[in-house]
């Protein structure tokens, strides 16, 4: 989720003053690297060895996914005005029904052609990224946008969060005034099409929503609010019910993610706090805050990610620092009961066996996005300083720094399977790029937006669908544009 009003990073990169033996020295990554191939442990073994060592080289990329860029123009009619954009445009399709910036985007996990977007026009749309849903034309000619499947009204302020639940049956949208709307797929004749939707519930328990995240396996979602509260809801047979409410943060809750298959929920705040909860019991599994000098990040925390095994949480802050926390394994947590649903209260520091493993101080401005690879032990961190840093999650050393974007990096996302080395990123520089992280090579550069790219999703065919600050969503095919070698520091 991208905030419509990005925070301003405060201060400069702070030095890490550690009281442990797990200090991280980013200068170690600049040493000369050996030429031998790395031997990676699995993600499940990530906690077994964390030893600062020299970086290892990554293997070369042999395939080429490039294609030819186009100069296709498109015409939108948002807000009753004709919007004509004539620039390098690599997109194959576009959606232009929004009349203000598109702040959020989601893809249906069961119907990957079904997209949801939410914008500054107080509206969310469900639409299809399939070519048959809109008119496309030959190279160099105008085309019309994709036709909306469903227009969701009822939000009175910007729709900053959208998420489909795990079943794909429900869409959850959240706005800046705290309103949550749940919409259900009601295409009884052919639910696999996802062509019919109906609003079924509205909830408003807080004044402003900062983020929203869907549970990876159940029709459950969580959100964080500006008042610091965290809410967990379940949807069953069209009924929305509160499962948990946590009132532990002392400042605005700025990010959250499910971990360990949805068993845990990790949240961060602008007051530099991390809480990890057991979703079912409401217990606090881990808690760290600014009173611990090893954990404090000036300006607060704005990004959080969990490794695939759910054993490590990484948080990113306003000064460019990341903190790495090892969670207690299942059955060993010693944290007490949290606030629970509607009960208030707070957790006590030091009541958990979670440990700070490292501080990563490589980037110089706010960390906006964090992503663990699902299949290799790497973490990607994107920053306002325009860089993407890849960390080896076995040793917590820098594997590579990618310097390709010309403005803030907003989001990074890994792929899986045979494409496990590919990382896609979007930026306020109006581009989406795909990198081979073994070499640092830029494999694709997609253009077409006239303003920053605030988010994206990837479908099962490798297509990228974007959310633009220019009110437009674009669909980029895998072939995208001609490969360009990006600038990356690290292994040759």
UniProtKB/TrEMBL annotation:
<dbReference type="InterPro" id="IPR001680">
    <property type="entry name" value="WD40_rpt"/>
</dbReference>
<dbReference type="Pfam" id="PF00400">
    <property type="entry name" value="WD40"/>
</dbReference>
<keyword id="KW-0677">Repeat</keyword>
<protein>
    <submittedName>
        <fullName>Uncharacterized protein</fullName>
    </submittedName>
</protein>
<feature type="repeat" description="WD">
    <location>
        <begin position="152"/>
        <end position="182"/>
    </location>
</feature>
<feature type="repeat" description="WD">
    <location>
        <begin position="95"/>
        <end position="128"/>
    </location>
</feature>
<dbReference type="InterPro" id="IPR015943">
    <property type="entry name" value="WD40/YVTN_repeat-like_dom_sf"/>
</dbReference>
<feature type="region of interest" description="Disordered">
    <location>
        <begin position="1"/>
        <end position="78"/>
    </location>
</feature>
<feature type="repeat" description="WD">
    <location>
        <begin position="402"/>
        <end position="445"/>
    </location>
</feature>
<feature type="compositionally biased region" description="Acidic residues">
    <location>
        <begin position="46"/>
        <end position="67"/>
    </location>
</feature>
<feature type="compositionally biased region" description="Polar residues">
    <location>
        <begin position="18"/>
        <end position="32"/>
    </location>
</feature>
<keyword id="KW-0853">WD repeat</keyword>
<feature type="repeat" description="WD">
    <location>
        <begin position="360"/>
        <end position="401"/>
    </location>
</feature>
<dbReference type="InterPro" id="IPR051179">
    <property type="entry name" value="WD_repeat_multifunction"/>
</dbReference>
<dbReference type="InterPro" id="IPR011047">
    <property type="entry name" value="Quinoprotein_ADH-like_sf"/>
</dbReference>
């Amino acid at each position: 989720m991208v905030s419509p009003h990005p925070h301003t990073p405060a201060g400069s990169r702070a030095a890490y003053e550690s009281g442990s033996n797990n200090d991280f020295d980013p200068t170690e990554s600049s040493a000369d690297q050996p030429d031998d191939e790395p031997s990676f442990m699995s993600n499940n073994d990530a906690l077994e060895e964390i030893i600062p060592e020299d970086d290892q080289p990554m293997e070369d990329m042999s395939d080429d996914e490039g294609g030819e860029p186009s100069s296709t123009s498109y015409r939108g009619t948002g807000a009753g005005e004709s919007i004509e954009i004539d620039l390098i445009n690599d997109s194959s399709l576009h959606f232009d029904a929004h009349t203000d910036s598109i702040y959020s985007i989601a893809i249906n996990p069961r119907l990957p052609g079904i997209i949801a977007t939410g914008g500054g026009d107080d509206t969310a749309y469900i639409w299809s990224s399939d070519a048959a849903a809109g008119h496309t034309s030959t190279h160099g000619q105008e085309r019309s946008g994709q036709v909306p499947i469903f227009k969701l009204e009822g939000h009175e302020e910007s729709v900053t969060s959208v998420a489909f639940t795990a079943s794909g049956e429900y869409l959850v949208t959240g706005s800046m005034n705290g309103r949550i709307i749940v919409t259900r797929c009601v295409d009884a004749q052919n639910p696999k099409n996802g062509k019919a939707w109906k609003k079924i519930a509205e909830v408003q328990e807080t004044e402003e929503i900062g983020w929203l995240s869907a549970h990876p396996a159940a029709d459950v979602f969580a959100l964080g609010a500006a008042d610091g509260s965290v809410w967990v809801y379940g949807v069953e047979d069209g009924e929305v019910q509160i499962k948990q409410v946590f009132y532990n943060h002392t400042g605005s809750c700025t990010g959250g993610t499910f971990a360990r298959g949805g068993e845990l929920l990790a949240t961060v705040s602008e007051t530099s706090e991390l809480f990890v909860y057991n979703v079912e019991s409401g217990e606090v599994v881990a808690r760290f805050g600014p009173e611990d000098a090893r954990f404090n990040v000036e300006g607060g925390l704005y990004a959080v990610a969990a490794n695939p095994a759910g054993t490590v949480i990484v948080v990113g802050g306003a000064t460019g620092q990341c903190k790495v926390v090892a969670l207690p394994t299942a059955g060993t947590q010693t944290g007490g009961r949290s606030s629970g649903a509607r009960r208030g209260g707070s957790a006590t520091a030091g009541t958990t066996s979670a440990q700070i493993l490292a501080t990563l101080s490589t980037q110089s401005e706010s960390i906006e996005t964090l992503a663990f690879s699902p299949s290799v032990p790497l973490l990607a961190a994107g920053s306002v300083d325009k860089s993407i840093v890849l960390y080896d999650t076995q040793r917590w050393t820098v594997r590579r720094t990618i310097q390709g974007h010309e403005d803030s990096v907003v989001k990074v996302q890994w792929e899986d399977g045979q494409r496990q080395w590919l990382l896609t990123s979007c930026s306020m520089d109006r581009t989406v790029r795909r990198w081979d992280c073994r070499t640092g090579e830029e494999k694709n550069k997609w253009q077409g937006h006239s303003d920053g790219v605030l988010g994206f999703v990837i479908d099962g065919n490798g297509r990228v669908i974007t959310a633009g600050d220019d009110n437009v969503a674009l669909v980029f095919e895998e072939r995208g544009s001609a490969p360009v070698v990006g600038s990356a520091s690290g292994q040759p």
